[in-house]
Amino acid sequence: MKILNAEFIASATEPSQFPAGGLPEVAFAGRSNVGKSSLLNALLGRKSLARVSRTPGRTRLLNFFRVVLSDKHGAEFVFVDLPGYGYAKVAKAVQEQWGPLIEGYLAARSALRGVVLLSDVRRGEQEEINLARWVQEQGLGLIAVATKIDKLPRGQRVQGIRDLEALLDVPVIGCSAETGEGMDAVWKAIRALPARPRN
Ligand code: GTP
Ligand code: MG
C-alpha cells in the first residue's frame, strides 16, 4: 500500500477532545504491549509516528492519525491508536477511566468503521473473545490480527493462528511489525470495511 501522507492529528483523554470525525475511522485495540502502536507504524511504513514502548501501558490517550493513500481513489482514513487494556500496574484510577472512555468511543463514534483487534499469537484470552463479540454487536467491522508471529518458530505459526481463529471464531491475520509480514492482508481488510457509517 502506498501512503501519500500520515500525520498525527490529536490526542484525547475525553470525548470533547475527539477531532471532528468525517473520514472513515479504524481503531486499533488490544491488551497493553500486544503491539498496537507498532502495527499502526508498520502499516504506515513509519518508524515512530505512534509511540512504541517496552513498558506496557505506554499509550494512555486515544491518538488520532490522518492517513492519505496514494492510490487512484486517494482514499483517506483516520487511524486511532487506543490505550491497551488489562495492564495491572497502571493505577486503578487510570484503569477505571480507560474502560468507559474506550467503550464509549467504540460505541458512539459514528465515523468508526472497524476495529483491528490484536492478540499475541502466543496467548489468546477471554478478554479478546469478549471484545470481539462486543465489536460485532456494535455493527463494526472486526479485523482480528495475531501479532508478533516472528517470535514463534515458523513451524508453529500456522497452528498459533488456527488456535486463535478457533478461540475468536473469526479469520485471523498473522502479523509481524518487525518483519512486515501480514501488512498487505491487514490493508486489504481495512480497504474492505464498509464505506458508510453504521446506523
Ligand atoms: P500499549 O500502548 O502499552 O498498550 O502497547 P502497544 O500495544 O501499543 O504495544 P507497542 O507497539 O508499544 O509494542 C510493545 C512492545 O512489543 C515493543 O517493545 C515492541 O517493539 C514490541 N513489538 C510490537 N510488535 C512486535 C512484533 O511484531 N514483533 C516483535 N518481536 N516485537 C514486537
Ligand atoms: Mg501503544
Keywords:
binds guanosine-5'-triphosphate, single chain, alpha/beta, seven-stranded mixed sheet, binds magnesium ion, 199 residues, 7 strands
Can you characterise this structure?
The chain is 31% helix and 25% strand. It contains 5 helices and 7 strands. The protein has helices at 36-44, 92-108, 126-137, 154-168, 183-191, and strands at residues 3-12, 25-30, 62-69, 76-81, 112-120, 141-147, 172-174. The chain has a 7-stranded mixed β-sheet with strand order 1-3-4-2-5-6-7, sandwiched between helices. Strand 3 and strand 4 (76-81) form a beta hairpin. The chain starts with a strand and ends in an 8-residue tail after the last helix. Magnesium ion binds at residues 36-37, 58-59, 81. Residues 30, 32-38, 52-54, 56-59, 83-84, 147-148, 150-151, 176-178 line the site of guanosine-5'-triphosphate.
Overall pLDDT confidence: 88
- Bound small molecules, deduplicated: guanosine-5'-triphosphate, magnesium ion
Number of helices: 5
The main sheet orders its strands as 1-3-4-2-5-6-7
What is the alpha-carbon Rg in Å? 16 Å
- Gap between N and C termini, in Å? 29 Å
Uncertain regions spanning at least 5 consecutive residues = none
Got a strand count? 7
Percentage of residues in DSSP E strands = 15-25%
Percent of residues in helices: 25-40%
Order of helices and strands: EEHEEHEHEHEH
User: Which outline best applies?
Assistant: globular
The secondary-structure class comes to alpha/beta
Largest sheet: 7 strands, mixed
